[in-house]
Amino acid sequence: MTTSDKTLNGKVALVTGGSRGIGAATAVRLAREGADVALTYVNGKEAAEDVVRAVEALGRRAVALRADSADAAEAAGAVGAAADALGGLDVLVNNAGIGVLGPLEDLSLADVDRVLAVNVRGVFLTSQAAAGRMGAGGRIITVGSCMVQRVPGPGGTLYALSKSALVGLTKGLARDLGPRGITASLVHPGPIDTDMNPADGPYAAGQAALTALGRFGTGDEVASMVAYLAGATYVTGAEYAVDGGHAA
């Protein structure tokens, strides 16, 4: 692929939670498409630096920023830090998220507050800040979950709640920002092979059986959809399932 063939040549992207899993795969994929990439992390400094090196090996600039999406100031501040470090912002990928699963009666108020702070409030604040730094052609892409479209069993109420809120957020952003030429889209991964949910883990067989393809997906497969949306010009307010048929 030549420089002129890269769909994101000269663009700047921020990937929250970009030190591992889907976030790391997305950061590298966007770099392959020509973008300079900032990524946030909370605890995985070494992993984040590995991603930075992978991006730089592709000839793009990269920076790792410590920012906790549960902290309102840090969630919004990461946008300005990324834009200042790399000279602007064209693509935001809201990937940072946490999952607290378990019986409804066992979920504490602290669980509720933490999950909603990261998965909903943090995404809103980061998107709001990004909208203030983006011009026409800006892209806001948020990572949701297959559990928005199908909750296959008990224990997922809080997580499904938090990810379902992103549907309304995305549609609202599309309407608010469309007149400025900025799009907003949502990607729903199914079971994806990551260190948090490995394809050979104790619950993996049951998760794979819920998909039409009968397997886990990869971070690269989700990243390919994110990269498509980062370059798409007439897609906004839309949801895309990358779930192996989990919702089929």
UniProtKB/TrEMBL annotation:
InterPro entries: KR_dom, NAD(P)-bd_dom_sf, SDR_fam
Magnesium listed as a keyword: no
Chain ranges of the Ketoreductase domain: 11-233
Record Pfam families: adh_short_C2
Keywords carried by this UniProt record: Oxidoreductase
Superkingdom, natural source: Bacteria
Residue ranges crossing the lipid bilayer per the database entry: none
Family the entry assigns: Belongs to the short-chain dehydrogenases/reductases (SDR) family.
Annotated PANTHER family: OXIDOREDUCTASE, SHORT-CHAIN DEHYDROGENASE/REDUCTASE FAMILY (AFU_ORTHOLOGUE AFUA_5G02870), SHORT-CHAIN DEHYDROGENASE_REDUCTASE FAMILY PROTEIN
Name of the featured protein: SDR family oxidoreductase
